[in-house]
Design brief:
Layout: E1 2-5, H1 11-24, E2 30-35, H2 50-55, H3 59-71, H4 80-85, H5 88-94, H6 98-104, E3 111-115, H7 121-130, E4 133-138, H8 141-150, E5 154-158, E6 164-165, H9 171-184, E7 191-194, H10 200-208, E8 213-215, H11 230-238, E9 244-247, E10 255-258, H12 261-267, H13 279-296, H14 300-305, H15 323-344
Parallel strand pairs: 1-2, 2-3, 3-4, 4-5, 5-7, 7-8
Antiparallel strand pairs: 6-10, 9-10
Helix pairs in contact: 1-6, 3-13, 8-9, 10-15
The structure holds flavin mononucleotide.
Length: 347
């Protein structure tokens, strides 16, 4: 089933997307995923003023970002206005996702998920009330135990290979570790494996390790249905599994993305230490949006800088396929893997 990541969406955008899904999904199940971290700058504040957050950003970080652009032939000018318009994520954090949840639950969603922490109590409460499964993404065994104790219905164990926010334990180790820990604690919460999974054989491997299924992000990015631009699609298809980096420079928390001179600059010695979430998103997102726009119009420097969240599985994503063809490949590759395993034990 498809799950829509809505971190940073305004209410209008969320409604538009959910209306579209409802009109096209033909009654099939789908879910919504938000990001309400356990820890972020300004947590507990009664309200958030995006303007005040932007006005308080340190010049060191803004100048550093501008310097990367200048060195690649991009004169960005003052990005503060764009920064003030890019405050969706900070605004959603201000009410711990409550307005997003209210809207999402007006649709017949079958799953609601949260990343970067234990789901806010309201999410678990609304999930129970509406009979909607609540999932939580975790990158460590301790987090899985805390999430199960808080009442989540599904744990997504995402290894460090994953695109987007991720921990530092590999999927190969994290999945059995989480499954074992939950069982030892008497929990029967199902575990979905995530991180680096782009083939059916990997799905079979995840299930052999005790996962109930798989959760995938990166594999969809090179499909024509994806929001990624042609420039990014080409870069992803050409990338190897060693071309990603786990960096705090995009959001303030570690997230895996395609390496480019933009990420290299932030990782280089002497670069400013990324600000806490969500402040770093104000530093990075407006320049990255500009880079995407210029890259699409053929600007050479912007094409070099362009980056996107993606996991190490990118090294296995070498052919552009439609989303439907990806699903079919998953099924066939899973069946082949299953047959290999069955043959290995003479079954
Ligand atoms: C482009 C992109 C955007 C993502 N956005 C979100 C998000 O908004 N919320 C979330 O919980 N996870 C998000 N993730 C992480 C996925 O939920 C998932 O854990 C991850 O993609 C799994 O690893 P994989 O990329 O190797 O398949 C994102 C991943 C990618 C690649």
């Amino acid at each position: 089933m498809g799950v829509l990541g809505v971190a940073g969406y305004s209410s209008e955008r969320l409604k538009q997307e959910l209306d579209w899904i409802e009109a096209h999904v033909g009654g099939k199940p789908y879910g919504v995923d938000l990001i309400v971290p356990n820890a972020y700058e300004g947590k507990g504040a009664a309200s958030v003023s995006v303007d005040a957050l932007v006005d308080g950003l340190p010049a060191t970080h803004k100048d550093f970002a501008a310097g990367i652009l200048t060195r690649h032939g991009i004169q960005a000018g003052d990005l503060d206005e764009a920064r003030k318009g890019a405050g969706g994520f900070a605004r959603n954090l201000a009410d711990a996702g409550a307005s997003t949840l209210d809207l999402a639950f007006q649709y017949p969603i079958k799953l609601i998920a949260n990343a970067l922490g234990t789901p806010p109590p309201l999410m678990i409460e609304m999930g129970k009330k509406h009979g909607v499964a609540v999932a939580a993404l975790v990158g460590a065994k301790e987090h899985a135990l805390a999430q199960a104790a808080a009442g989540v219905d599904i744990i997504v164990a995402a290894g460090t290979e994953a695109g987007g926010h991720c921990g530092d334990v590999t999927t190969m180790v994290l999945v059995p570790e989480v499954v074992e820990a939950l069982r030892a604690a008497g929990s029967d919460v199902p575990v979905l494996a995530a991180g680096g999974i782009v083939t059916g054989a990997q799905m079979a491997a995840a299930m052999a390790m005790g996962a109930a299924g798989a959760w995938c992000g990166s594999v969809w990015l090179t499909t024509p249905e994806a929001e990624t631009s042609e420039v990014i699609k080409r870069k992803l298809l050409a990338a190897t599994s060693r071309d990603t980096v786990r960096s705090k420079s995009r959001t303030g928390k570690p997230s895996r993305q395609l390496r480019s001179p933009w990420t290299d600059a932030w990782e280089a010695e002497g670069s400013p230490k990324p600000l806490p979430m969500p402040l770093q998103t104000f530093i990075s997102e407006p320049p990255l949006r500009l880079i995407d726009k210029l890259a699409d119009s053929g600007h050479a420097g912007a094409r070099e800088l362009a980056t996107y969240w993606v996991g190490q599985g990118v090294g296995l994503m070498n052919t552009p396929l439609s989303a439907g063809a990806v699903v079919q490949e998953f099924k066939e590759d899973f069946a082949r893997a299953y047959e290999r395993l069955a043959a290995a034990v003479g079954a």
